[in-house]
Amino acid sequence: MAIAKKYLKTKPVCKVTFTVPTDDAKKVAVVGDFNNWNAKKSELKKQKNGSFKGTFDLPKENSFEFKYIVDGEYVNDGEADRYQWNDFAGSENAVLEL
Fold it and tell me: Which residue ranges does the record assign to the CBM20 domain (predicted)?
């Protein structure tokens, strides 16, 4: 998994690209604080190489808890900036620092 951050000079926004490598997944989404954990607003597009990718404009100087949903299973990103326990979920969530 990979996260790429591109900070814009003209806006208080960071373009964040999430990439999830997988050969056999049918559906992948990224959910988190930035989209109210709504998978319909954040489905990633399948690439020719089999990975899933999506870019989102997120406000700078924030941190966001997030996870991927890969075919209905919640998965953390191994390259997250850090991890944080979430009592509501009863597990650790990946955290993105912008």
Answer: 8-98
Instruction: Give me the residue spans of the domains in the chain.
Output: 2-97
Please say if the pLDDT value at position 23 is more than 80. Answer: no
Local structure of residue 43 (DSSP, 8 states): B
Contacts of 37 (CB under 8 A, 6+ apart): 31
**What residues contact 93, with CB distance under 8 A and at least 6 apart?**
32, 65, 66, 67, 76, 83, 84, 85, 86
pLDDT over 80 at 19, yes or no = yes
Segment 48-82, tens digit of pLDDT: 999 999 999 999 999 999 999 999 999 999 999 99
Place of tokens 């089999």: 50
Among 75, 21, 31, 23, residue whose Cα is nearest residue 53: 21
